[in-house]
Amino acid sequence: MAGETAIPRDDAPPPAAPGGPFARLIGVMNAAGTVWIILLMLLINADIFGRSFLSSPIAGVPELVSFSIVGIVFLQLAHTLRSGAMTRSDVLLGVLERRAPRARFALLAAFHLAGGVLMLMIAWKYWPSVAGAWQHPERNFMGNPGFFTIPQWPLFILVFLGIGATAIQFLLMSWSDLRSIQEPAR
């Protein structure tokens, strides 16, 4: 309504890191994942219509769906982390927020640092699969030869980019948490 201002919620998490080019990049990745979901739903509905009314299914829909689910998850993973929508149990964090806010930020910094390091380790171990799929697309495909096949390298690259973006987001959040330890209590 006119003249009213939004009242901040007490349970809403503060922004994890300042906005900037990286925040825009993961926002674009998230939006691309959302558009992909819409296109996937249109494809599935067209396949159902073709199967039901035209007795002519669209070739490769199951392969494209399984390919898409993995791609969408990794496209949206960093944004999910940034927006605070990752599933976690924060009972201890809630208690620390009231009693020892600096300890809370220290714990969050350690958690986010561990998440970033683990994602970097996953990216390091995953890279040979990406390179192999790129160099040998004839051996790395999904589907049935002669009917429908799709190369795996685009999916592998999306997964790798999602892992890398999530690692960076974890590390940015850890840095933000460390800076928050130094700030006076709000």
Structure, explained:
The protein is mainly alpha-helical. It has one domain (21-182). It has five helices and two strands. The protein has a two-stranded antiparallel ribbon. Helix 1 (21-53) packs antiparallel against helix 2 and helix 4 (101-135) runs antiparallel to helix 5. It is elongated and about 65 Å long. It starts with 20 loop residues before the first helix and ends with a helix. The model is unreliable at 1-16 (pLDDT under 50).
In short, what is this structure?
With 186 residues, the protein is mainly α. It has 5 helices and 2 strands.
Descriptive labels:
186 residues; mainly alpha
Structural class: mainly alpha
Extended strand count: 2
Estimated radius of gyration: 21 Å
Q: Please summarize the sheet with the most strands.
A: 2 strands, antiparallel
Mean pLDDT: 86
Question: What is the 3D form?
Answer: elongated
Q: Helicity, in percent?
A: 55-70%
Order of helices and strands: HHHHEEH
How many separate domains?
Answer: 1
Number of helical regions = 5
Q: Main sheet: which strands, in order across?
A: 1-2
Distance between the termini: 30 Å
- Percent of residues in beta strands: under 5%
- Spans of 5+ residues with little confidence (pLDDT < 50)? 1-16
Give the SSE layout.
Layout: H1 21-53, H2 61-82, H3 91-99, H4 101-135, E1 141-144, E2 148-151, H5 153-182
